[in-house]
Design brief:
Arc Repressor Mutant, subunit A, 62% helix
Length: 87
């Protein structure tokens, strides 16, 4: 960073989150993990695919994992709704 005309270096905002922000983020992440851990296997799979992989209900219903356990789109939708309501 180049000094200004008066020889001082301008202050720059710190992009790093504060300690408080990091603690709040970590707390939220821990709560999310606890909620996910409390879900049944197929329910957890459906929620993770929807929330973290961005798949819609039909895509989840069409995937190999869903087909293996015999899920239909309506069942996937129900699992996601009930799984998200537990959070």
């Amino acid at each position: 960073m180049r000094p200004t005309r008066d020889g001082t270096t301008p202050e720059v905002a710190d992009d790093e989150p504060s300690i408080e922000q990091r603690m709040m983020r970590d707390e939220r992440m821990g709560a999310d993990q606890e909620a996910r851990d409390g879900l049944a296997g197929t329910q957890r799979t459906a929620v993770l695919m929807h929330k973290y992989q961005g798949l819609d209900y039909r895509q989840i219903g069409d995937c190999a994992e869903a087909e293996r356990v015999g899920d239909q789109v309506a069942a996937v939708s129900g699992r996601i709704r009930s799984g998200l309501s537990l959070k």
